User: Which sequence fits this backbone?
């Protein structure tokens, strides 16, 4: 059961860790030391801690970060809920100079990081807000995958009419089919976020019929 809990969040985000390479101009995430995970899980009454997704280093301020998974019985809000059989929520843990702080929902995320003032910050913020992931290595799009249209482009950020448009990806984790989706996300400077477009893009045929709860 533990592996399925982890998949609830990592199914959306681990691909960005695999896809990134050292040539990207985007700043990597500063991770909280894994040696502190057990004590932090106890402190914050969490079931699990795991590494934060990549490309969060553009946030300002750029705190060391980890992801916490908490059972439904320990959570009052509804943001970032797991879609699996085990009810739970993922939360963001940051390490400030004066101690660790848990970001429980999107409103708290907005209060922590807005205003959004750069392309890099818009990328990092959009990843945390939506739980989508970025791809900057074209080799992520393997020739063995089944594409529903043209091969997608790598992630990017562009400014448009005072907003940031961020191109990201997501993946359907639970169920018996697992397509990847391409998404366009609009990030306002005040921290508001809107998914402008999301559509099925490709699928790994090796995962066809793989059922995950």
Assistant:
């Amino acid at each position: 059961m533990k592996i399925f809990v982890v998949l609830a969040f990592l199914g959306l985000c681990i691909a960005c860790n695999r896809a990134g390479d050292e040539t990207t101009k985007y700043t990597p995430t500063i991770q909280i030391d894994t040696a502190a995970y057990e004590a932090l899980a106890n402190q914050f009454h969490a079931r699990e801690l795991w590494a934060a997704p990549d490309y969060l280093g553009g946030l300002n301020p750029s705190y060391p970060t980890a992801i916490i998974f908490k059972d439904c019985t320990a959570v009052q809000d509804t943001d970032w809920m797991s879609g699996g059989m085990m009810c739970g929520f993922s939360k963001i843990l940051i390490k400030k100079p004066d101690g660790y702080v848990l970001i429980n929902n999107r409103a708290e995320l907005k209060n922590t990081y807005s205003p959004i003032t750069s392309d890099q910050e818009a990328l990092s913020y959009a990843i945390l807000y939506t739980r989508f992931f970025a791809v900057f290595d074209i080799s992520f799009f393997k020739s063995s995958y089944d594409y529903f249209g043209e091969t997608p482009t790598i992630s990017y950020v562009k400014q448009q009419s005072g907003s940031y448009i961020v191109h990201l990806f997501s993946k359907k984790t639970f169920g018996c089919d697992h397509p990847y989706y391409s998404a366009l996300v609009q990030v306002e400077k005040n921290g508001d976020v809107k998914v402008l477009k999301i559509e099925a893009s490709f699928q790994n045929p090796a995962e066809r019929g793989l059922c995950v709860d």
